[in-house]
Amino acid sequence: MEQTRTTHSRRSFLKSSLLAGGGLMISFSWLPKAGQANTPHHPVAPEAWNELTGYVRIYPDNSITILNPNPEFGQNVMTSLPMMVAEELEADWKKIVVEMGPHDSTKLGAQFTGGSNSVRMYWRPLREAGAAARQMLLQAAAESWSVPIEELTTRAAIIYHEKTGKSGTYGSFASKAATLPVPKGMKLKAPKDFKVVRNSQKNVEGIKIVSGQPLFGIDYKVDGMLIAMIQHPPAFGMKLKSFDATQTLKMPGIKDVFTLKLYEEGFEQGGFDTRSFNDLLVVVGNTTWEVMNARKKLIVDWVPAGDTKDTFGGRGTKREVTVPGALESTTAQLAKMEEYAQKPAQQLRKDGDPETAFKNAAQIIERTYNAPFLAHNCMEPMNFFAHVTAEKALLAGPLQAPGWSEPTLAKLLQLPAEKIEIQMTRMGGGFGRRAYGHYLYEVALIAKKVQAPVKLIYTREDDMTYGIYRPMYTATYRAALDANKKLIAFHVKGGGIPEHAIHANRFPAGAVDNYLAEGWQIPSNITIGAFRAPRSNFNAAAEQSFLDELAEAMGKDPIDFRLELLQKVKEKPVGRNNEYDVDRYTGILKLVKEKSGWGKPENNKYNRGVAAYFCHNSYAAHVVDIVMRNNRPYVERVYSAIDCGIVINPDAATNMVEGAVIDGIGNAFYGKLSHKDGAAEQSNFHNYRMIRHSEAPAKIEVHFVQNDIDPTGLGEPPFPPVFGAVANALYKLNKKRHYNQPYLNNPLQSGTVTNNKKPF
Amino acid sequence: MLKLTINKKVYNLDIDPETPLLWALRDVIGLVGTKYGCGMAQCGACVVHLNGEAVRSCVTRVSRAAGKEVVTIEGLSDNNDHPLQQAWLELDVSQCGYCQAGQIMSAAVLLRENKNPTDKDINSAMEGNICRCGTYLRIHKAIQLAADIQRKGSK
To answer: Can you tell me the ipTM of this complex?
Structure first.
């Protein structure tokens, strides 16, 4: 069995330079092997090798600035990444100033926030940058004092030579250090020596957040800035035919109304250039309210777009994809999924002889699970600022991966990449949505046209109905038991619009002698994108519910059943390429069992559900305790066990897991974006049900497995298993299995439930 | 001309009286701590105080604020040391942070009216504020901590 890859092969180099006005600046370039980024539905990955740069700046007055390389969307990299630098630098964390770093088109790569990548990716290079800076400062001090470097010690950005009683600040040696060569092969601290990392540090932007300082893209403002909004078609599959803007143009503060094509015909899109609508009807004016109001006065004729073609480029290949023009409805989509589920599908993995095993089975359990599209609903709606001239472009706003958007921007604006500056603001949520830069391209073209600085704002309705949703998924699971109720075969066949979610090499693959995984997909004009733990967020609902039902059919405890399967993988794994690490998977199950008091009589008053899942290199298990409160199911307590390797910032990591649990409960209970005749049926929070304050659990107890494994990522892994644990707890509550999401908010109604009703 | 007092400062605005207070604050006055989230009083990101009452500024006409006292997150305290701000920092509540100004402004009215809020009081006062990151648990604890800080401060 292959171990999970937790480190990247890489070559890295550090560079030092003298700051203007004195001081030391360490930059590093790092060429990691990327490719772990979770791209949702297209094969185009970021360049295989990216270059990343970060900076440590030490000034003569001993102030130290660390630039954070990756954009912040609430996962707290603004704090955790600089902590890693500070650890090796031996600086006083409380005095360090953290700033958002720049996007550099030549030296920097994607700077992608997502895929639970940031901490994992920067773990070595950022510590190396800190260690190099410290080493050079020591070297400078040793030379100045004429003492051996080995006799020097550091504490809180001060260098000490005990024998002579000499001491000096980092800042006093910074300019000299900048003239020295950058050391090679630095020795990094052992985990037992960590002082900053593994100790909870407060969010460096906390004070700015609670005092309402401008931090977000929507807060960005320059003199003379205009506001733009786009009137998108009312439904997927529609396009603009004609418009009358007479009334709009008469409204106060309105500058212009015009149309733009986002991509010219045949434009080669990159993997994250998804857009739902290509003809942009744009209203530009002075203030948000004026534009919002005037836009309502547009008289627009929309027509069905019919089938359209998208052209995808990158990696030296070019391919055309037909986007079907039908105006889709959820009921028809479900019927179509049922039809496709009966057809032959692509085989993704096969071990042993599943066909024969199913034929010889004493008992077959078959269950089908469905889940709807989900909208990301970032609290800050999509927006971006642009100022474009003939020579250069400045863009600023919330974006998860500037490096993925820049090449497209360069093509659209016909400017060289080095003439494009993208500033990354704090994001009011991302969850995958802001990896797709269409709104940045839109504002760039608008700014070019109006020849003024302009900010594009999506209203909540624009945002929610635009697309880039979590796909609509289905999966049918089958298990074959022999006469002794032993599991002899396992089959999963998954599909979706427009992709399936199946991870063929994940648990329980490897644990069953006869195993088959298959997938199929239905093309659609409804656009999709990565949504916190793409695909896993459905699999962990379906698979973990199925395993729970299977355990019941086999008369086993659901945790013990999983542990038995894992023991089998440990002793005699079936097949190759099992993605997960058995010991880590087992570890979280045992930890959650212990911490939740699983099986203890005092917990009998709760309806308990358990689920565990591996994704994005980390492991998460939850035990969810549901009670009835005011005639509604309420998740009162949650116990979480997480293995993400070394935890950089424990309290912030705990916050992230708590958030993932609440986010998971909300989406499992209520999350649903449905369609009628191509139009989204939910447009704002009055009809898209979000979890509310009183529905958050009274207690979420988060436990991290203590080990010294290099960090393996945390933003996504705790999210998917919440769905399964909730479904399994709901079953305990009302003795009804929940196959269709959202569990409490008009679940999808599917004809396949006939299978689900068969007793086992 | 509309005369408004915002965070103890007087503004004379030449503005369409129908304009929501939210956009007057953000686009005209330049106080952007108050956030746009839904525009229909569903999410609470835009909560400000109007004569001491929590209102959704996205559906409050600026004309309604004329002659009245408006307090936004920027003016909640003189030194960012309102008990809620202290508690929010102490418990490191924020994730993305976008909704937190609205959360704090809703909680501030609760704490002024109710020195010892129960779980139920907090739940009902905060039900209108959505946090997409799911920091509700910490918000809840921070309000309890702020109530503690407030009680100790008033002794």
So the answer is: 0.98
